[in-house]
Design goal:
Structural class: alpha+beta
Strand content: 15-25%
Number of helices: 6
Order of helices and strands: HHEEHEEEHHH
Helix content: 25-40%
Strand order of the largest sheet: 1-2-5-4-3
Largest sheet: 5 strands, mixed
Number of strands: 5
C-alpha cells in the first residue's frame, strides 16, 4: 500500500521541481529582478482583488491577506501583489479552483509537497494568489514577516538593502536564492 509523502516545508528549489509544479509553460528569467519604489496604490489593488476573490468564493475564502513586499509601506518591491488565501482544503481543487477560474484567475503552480500550496495569476493585475488550507502555519509565517517589517524600520531597511543587492544579479529563477540559502544553512549547521 502506497503512503502519501510527507509535505516538504521548503519551497521549490530546482528547475525540475519548478517544471513539475508549473501548470502550463515554464518561463525562466535569466535577468535581474526589477524592484520599484513603494507604490501607495498597491493596497487599493489588493482591496479590489480581495473583493473579487470573496465574490467568487463566498464562505470558502476563510482568510485573505495582503502579504509580501508590496504590503509593507515604504518597502521597494517587485510590482507583483502577493495575496494569501486560506480555503478549507487547498488540496481539494474541485472545491474552489472552478470558481476562481470563472472569475478569471489562472492556476499557475501546484505544489502538493509544500503545504499543498496552489498559486494563481490574476485577471486584471499582476498578482500571485497563494492558496493554502486554513490553519496552515505558512500563512501565519507570511503575515508575521509582513507585520514585523511594518513595525520595525531597521529590519525593513536592512531587508530592502539585501533585496536591492540581490536584484542586481541575473537570476534564472527566484528559487535559486532559496537553494543557495538552504545550502548555506546546511553547511553552517555542521
Amino acid at each position: 500500500m502506497a503512503t502519501e509523502p510527507e509535505p516538504r516545508e521548503v519551497p521549490l528549489t530546482s528547475e525540475e521541481d519548478i517544471r513539475r509544479a508549473t501548470v502550463g509553460p515554464v518561463v525562466f528569467r535569466d535577468a535581474p529582478i526589477v524592484l520599484v519604489d513603494y507604490d501607495p496604490r498597491w493596497p487599493a489593488i489588493f482591496d479590489r482583488e480581495a473583493r473579487h476573490i470573496h465574490a467568487a468564493l463566498a464562505s470558502l475564502a476563510i482568510r485573505l491577506e495582503h502579504v509580501g513586499s508590496t504590503s509593507v509601506p515604504g518597502l521597494a518591491a517587485k510590482p507583483i501583489i502577493d495575496i494569501v488565501l486560506a480555503v478549507p482544503d487547498s488540496a481539494d481543487e474541485a472545491g474552489y479552483v472552478p470558481a476562481l477560474e470563472a472569475a478569471g484567475y489562472v492556476l499557475h503552480n501546484r505544489e502538493p509537497g509544500w503545504f499543498e500550496h496552489r498559486m494563481f495569476k490574476g485577471p486584471e493585475a499582476d498578482i500571485n494568489l497563494h492558496v493554502f488550507s486554513a490553519g496552515e502555519a505558512e500563512i501565519d509565517r507570511m503575515v508575521l514577516f509582513r507585520d514585523w517589517l511594518r513595525s520595525h524600520d531597521a529590519d525593513r531597511d536592512a531587508y530592502v538593502q539585501v533585496k536591492r543587492e540581490l536584484a542586481q544579479r541575473n537570476w534564472r529563477h527566484v528559487q535559486q536564492i532559496m537553494a543557495r540559502a538552504t545550502a548555506e544553512r546546511g553547511s553552517t549547521a555542521d
